[in-house]
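debug: dumping io for the single-chain case to check the tokenizer round-trip. Nothing else runs in this session.
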Amino acid sequence: MTWAARLAVDPETGQLGRKGSLRAFASVGRLHITFIAALGTFTFGWLFMGEYPWFLTGVCALDWYFVNLFNRIVDIKEDEANEIRGTNFVVRHRRLLLGLCFALLLVSLVVVHLLNPAITPLRVTCHLMGLFYNWPLLPGGRRLKHQYFWKNTTSAVGFLFTILGYPLATLAWEKGLHHFPPGITWVTVLFSALFLLLFVLSYEVIYDLRDVQGDKLAGIRTYPVVHGERTAINIVNGLLFSSMVVLAIGYVSGFVPWRIFIMVGAPVIQYAVYKRALRRGISAKDCTFITWMGAFLFLIYHLWVLAELPGARL
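debug: decoded output
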């Protein structure tokens, strides 16, 4: 069987075909996370650069697909315990996926550097963080994923580097550090970064609530494992509330324009959805749904802008 045919195997049934290939592609690379990160870059690139960053969006999607695929390759034990879709596919094709992923990553680093050298330091940093996150490269053979507090923080910072860092680095390289669209300043960027950091961390802890059993088995010291699920739920609540407060303070003080403040609705919606999921126990499907919901909200945001609805340019 050729490598292309092997990758076309359905991750659950083992059958060949286009449907199996697409399902494998989506499941092993956590396509929902890839999409929301790419749309985040697309959105904040438009906000901070004044234009749609199509190229940066594609690079962000590629980088997060690599990061998530590496994570799936390493975390087989936890994913089996948590019954994560596509784990059987990863087990069967681990070496092929690992080699292919590393080769494509190296090629992309060269090609993207030739087209946009401004983001290369951020890309290299993100992928080094990913290597230390996934593989036991820290002193004592430890992974960042096993480190209390740093597990979630590393992942959230990676999102900030791609969603905010790629557009800002490109803007600085092409136009200079102060060529923002009207209503945007570096203080706006700081408020946006803090909002995103808190909001993304809430996602991270929700995913940890899903993965409690597998994380205990693997010795990963997440907030639910260390403090219990009730405390972890309070942490999620606090992160969501704090993210809303940050945007509110920024808006009232005049540093955050309405077109960014309107994003305060995202944590409100997420709170309602995740609370409903909690009542029956958060599952992998719940986490996937919450993430796709976030991506869908980004799409609605851009339709609102394109339709020139009230407040779209304020």
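debug: round-trip ok. The first helix runs from residue 3 to 7.
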